[in-house]
C-alpha cells in the first residue's frame, strides 16, 4: 500500500538534502529549500530578557535550517517506511493520495522522557505548590504508595490512556521509565507493562530512596543493583538514576549505572534539576545517551556536553509546573550541545503530555528558535534514544508523520494550547 501525502505547504524533514529511495527518481533542487532566516519574527527581540546573554539575535537564525524545510512538497509511504520525499509536482503514483491542502507536515514527535506507569495523582500537591510550597524529590513517595496498590490492569488502562492522548498530540515514539514501584515486584511490573507498548523502556529503580530504606540509601542501592536489576533488565533497554541532592549521590549513581551497563543496559541520567551537581560529568564519562533536566549547568558541564555524544534533554514542563528558572537553551545550542525536548510526563513535576506545549514554552522561555525547538522535539529526541530510524522525514525512515492544521510549524509555538494536529501516521498507519 503506497500512500502519497501531497500538496504539503511546508515540510519539516530534519534531513537537508533528503532525496529519494532506491528506485524512485531523485529530484534534487526541485523543491525550494529555505534557510531558517525565513522564520517569522527572526528580526525582533522580545523586551523581556530573563536569560543572560539573550540580548542578541540567536546565531542559529543566521545558520543553516535545522529543519531541512521543503515547500510544495510530497512524501510517499510504502508500508511502514517513507520511500520518497520531494516536490509535489514530481511525485510518483500511489494507491491512495492525501491532499495536505498547503498545510505543514512534521516528523512525529519523539518524547524521550516519560514516567507514565503509575497510580493516583498529585493534584493537591500541585495546588499547594502554586500557592508557594517548594518542589522536593520526596513527593515521588506518595505516587509509590498508589502505584504499589494498583493492579496490572489498572496501570495498563491508565498507561494506554496516556499513550492515546500523546498520539493525538503528534507523539509517535515515547520512552517510558519505571520508578514508582521501588521494590522488586512492583518495579518488575512497571517495566513489563511499559515493554508492552514501547521498546524504549528505562529501569529507574533509583528514582528516590523509598521510605522503608530511609537513612539506608546504600542498602537500597544494593537492592537496585542486585535483585531488582535481575528482575527488570530483561524488559528494559535503558538504566537511569536520579543523581540529585535528596535522591542519589554521585558514587551511588555510578554504582547503579555501571551495574546496568554490566547487564547490557545503556545509561541515561536525571541530573542538575534542583541544583548544580556532578551528574552531568558522570553521564558524559559513562557515555550516557542523554542527561535529562540540566536546569542548573556549570560552564564545565556545558563544555563536557559539547564535546560528547550525550544529548541534553530539556523538560520545559518541569520548570513550568514547579516554577523553577528555565535553563538557557541558547547557551547550550551555541556551545554545540545536542538538545532534545521531552515532556517528562509524571504526576509530580510535569503532568503535561503535550509536546506542542513544551515546544511553545521552550521557544518563549528557553530562547530556542521555533525551528530548533521542533528539531529538538523530533530529531533531538531520536538522538537521545540513539535511534536512526525516527525523527526525520527521509527515504528509509519509519513513516511517523504529523499533518498540522496550520500552514506552518511556527503555529505550534504561536498558538499555545490550541490543538493543531490534523492527522498522525505511525509506522505508515493513519491513527
Ligand atoms: Zn523524569
Your description of this structure?
The chain has 13 helices and 17 strands. It is an alpha/beta fold and 431 residues long. The chain has two domains: 2-33 and 68-107 and 392-430, Urease, subunit C, domain 1, CATH 2.30.40.10; 110-384, TIM Barrel. The strands form three sheets. Strands 1, 2, 3, 4, 5, 15, 16 and 17 form an eight-stranded mixed β-sheet that branches. Strand 10 (238-243), helix 6 and strand 11 form a beta-alpha-beta unit. Helix 11 crosses helix 12. Zinc ion (ZN) is lined by residues 113, 115, 270, 344.
Named once each, the bound ligands are: zinc ion
Radius of gyration: 21 Å
H/E series: EEEEEEHHHEEHEHEHEHEHEHHEHHEHEE
Which word captures the global form? globular
CATH topology of the largest domain: TIM Barrel
In terms of topology, how is this protein built?
Layout: E1 2-11, E2 70-78, E3 81-87, E4 96-99, E5 104-107, E6 109-111, H1 123-130, H2 140-149, H3 152-168, E7 171-174, E8 176-177, H4 184-195, E9 201-206, H5 217-232, E10 238-243, H6 250-262, E11 266-271, H7 279-285, E12 290-293, H8 299-306, E13 311-314, H9 316-322, H10 329-335, E14 339-341, H11 355-365, H12 370-384, E15 401-404, H13 411-414, E16 421-426, E17 429-430
Parallel strand pairs: 1-4, 1-5, 6-7, 8-9, 9-10, 10-11, 11-12, 12-13, 13-14
Antiparallel strand pairs: 1-2, 2-3, 5-15, 15-16, 16-17
Helix pairs in contact: 3-4, 4-5, 5-6, 11-12
Amino acid at each position: 500500500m503506497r500512500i502519497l501525502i501531497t500538496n504539503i505547504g511546508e515540510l519539516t524533514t530534519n534531513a537537508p538534502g533528503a532525496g529519494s529511495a532506491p528506485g524512485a527518481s531523485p529530484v534534487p533542487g526541485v523543491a525550494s529549500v529555505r534557510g531558517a532566516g525565513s522564520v517569522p519574527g527572526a528580526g525582533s527581540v522580545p523586551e523581556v530578557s530573563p536569560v543572560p546573554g539573550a540580548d542578541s539575535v540567536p546565531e542559529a537564525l543566521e545558520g543553516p535550517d535545522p529543519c531541512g524545510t521543503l515547500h510544495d512538497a510530497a512524501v510517499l509511504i510504502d508500508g511502514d517506511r517513507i520511500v520518497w520525499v520531494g516536490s509535489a509536482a514530481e511525485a510518483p503514483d500511489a494507491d491512495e493520495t492525501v491532499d495536505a491542502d498547503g498545510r505543514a507536515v512534521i516528523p512525529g514527535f519523539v518524547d524521550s522522557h516519560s514516567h507514565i506507569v503509575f497510580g493516583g495523582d498529585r493534584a493537591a500537591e500541585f495546588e499547594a505548590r502554586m500557592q508557594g510550597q517548594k518542589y522536593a524529590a520526596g513527593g515521588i513517595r506518595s505516587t509509590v504508595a498508589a502505584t504499589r496498590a494498583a493492579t496490572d490492569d489498572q496501570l495498563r488502562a491508565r498507561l494506554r490512556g496516556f499513550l492515546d492522548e500523546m498520539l493525538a498530540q503528534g507523539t509517535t515514539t515515547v520512552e517510558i521509565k519505571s520508578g514508582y514501584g521501588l521494590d522488586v515486584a512492583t518495579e518488575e511490573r512497571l517495566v513489563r507493562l511499559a515493554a508492552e507498548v514501547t521498546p524504549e523502556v528505562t529501569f529507574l529503580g533509583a528514582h528516590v530512596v523509598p521510605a522503608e530504606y530511609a537513612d539506608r540509601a546504600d542498602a537500597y542501592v544494593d537492592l537496585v543493583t542486585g535483585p531488582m536489576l535481575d528482575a527488570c533488565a530483561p524488559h528494559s533497554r535503558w538504566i537511569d538514576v536520579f543523581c540529585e541532592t535528596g535522591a542519589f549521590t554521585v558514587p551511588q549513581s555510578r554504582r547503579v549505572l555501571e551495574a546496568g551497563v554490566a547487564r547490557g543496559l545503556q545509561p541515561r541520567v536525571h541530573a542538575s534539576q534542583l541544583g548544580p551537581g556532578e551528574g552531568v560529568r558522570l553521564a558524559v564519562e559513562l557515555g550516557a545517551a542523554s542527561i535529562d533536566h540540566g536546569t542548573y549547568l556549570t560552564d564545565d558541564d556545558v563544555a563536557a556536553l559539547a564535546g560528547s555524544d550525550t544529548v541534553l534533554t530539556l523538560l520545559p514542563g518541569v520548570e513550568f509546573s514547579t516554577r523553577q528558572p528555565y535553563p538557557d537553551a541558547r547557551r547550550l545550542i551555541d556551545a554545540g550541545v545536542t538538545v532534545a525536548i521531552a515532556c517528562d510526563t509524571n504526576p509530580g513535576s510535569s503532568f503535561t503530555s503535550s509536546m506542542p506545549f513544551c515546544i511553545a514554552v521552550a521557544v518563549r522561555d528557553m530562547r530556542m528558535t521555533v525551528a530548533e525547538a521542533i528539531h529538538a522535539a523530533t530529531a533531538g529526541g531520536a538522538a537521545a534514544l540513539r535511534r536512526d530510524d525516527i525523527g526525520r522525514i527521509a527515504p528509509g525512515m519509519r513513516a511517523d508523520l504529523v499533518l498540522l492544521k496550520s500552514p506552518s510549524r511556527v503555529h505550534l509555538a504561536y498558538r499555545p494550547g490550541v490543538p493543531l494536529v490534523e492527522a498522525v501516521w505511525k509506522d505508515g498507519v493513519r491513527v
